[in-house]
Specification:
Elements lengths: L53 H7 L8 H11 L10 H11 L9 H21 L9 H10 L6 H11 L7 H21 L11 H9 L2
Helix pairs in contact: 2-3, 3-7, 4-5, 4-7
């Protein structure tokens, strides 16, 4: 039996759909090139000049050919991807990079960059779907619906803790919503790796627990 949240890692409303412009804004044509809904793991091709994301990546990346948190923040802020919340949170950018930073450089290479924008487009689709009053922010009950739609099954107590952590004045802005999604994805992935029998229970050594929770 899968533990709560097991389905949340791979499921995302809007899979295979292209992003379009709307209340949240976005780069030209309303989306980042070649990106659909979030499918969990993503096998990106090798960088090539004819890749629709390659030119965009090289325009953002520094001289080292990678994207750090400050460069990612400028990219998301200038593109209008975050909508009404400006600038895009630097802390959210840091944890997004940490989520995908498999080589532990603190930066993103091209494949990681593509994977991130696949996830971001899926999360934006989900955000817009549940922002029912088109305010550009979510209310707590809308956030709860969005989390449930991604396959996470959380207790009311856990849900309330998330609301308190990510709301500002009783509302959730897009970059805080992204931070929430990153945390849920990363912590669920770490839990799942240790729950080989999918029993919903794992044993953590203290140091391992700190590593898992502090990495994002």
């Amino acid at each position: 039996m899968a533990y709560p949240g097991y389905g949340g890692y791979g499921a995302m409303p809007g899979q295979g759909m292209q992003m379009h412009g709307g209340m949240m804004g976005g780069p030209p044509q309303g989306g980042f090139p070649g990106q659909g809904g979030y499918h969990g793991t993503f096998a990106a091709p090798s960088p090539a000049v004819n890749d629709p994301m390659w030119g965009y990546f090289t325009a953002i990346a520094g001289q080292d050919g990678e994207v750090d948190a400050e460069e990612l923040q400028r990219c998301l802020t200038q593109s209008g991807f975050s909508g009404s919340y400006n600038p895009f949170s630097l802390e959210t950018c840091r944890i997004m990079i940490a989520m995908l930073d498999r080589d532990m450089t603190g930066k993103m290479g091209f494949n990681e960059f593509k994977e991130l924008f696949t996830a971001l487009n899926g999360w934006k689709q989900n955000f817009m779907m549940f922002d029912q009053d088109r305010s550009g922010t979510m209310e707590p009950h809308e956030l709860a619906q969005a989390i449930t739609s991604m396959g996470y099954r959380l207790s009311p107590h856990a849900g309330n803790a998330i609301m308190k952590r990510y709301s500002k004045g009783g509302r959730i802005f897009f970059d805080d919503y992204v931070a929430c999604c990153v945390k849920l994805r990363a912590l669920t992935e770490n839990f799942r790796k240790r729950d080989a029998m999918q029993q919903g229970t794992v044993n953590f050594q203290y140091d391992d627990f700190i590593m898992c929770t502090m990495a994002v």
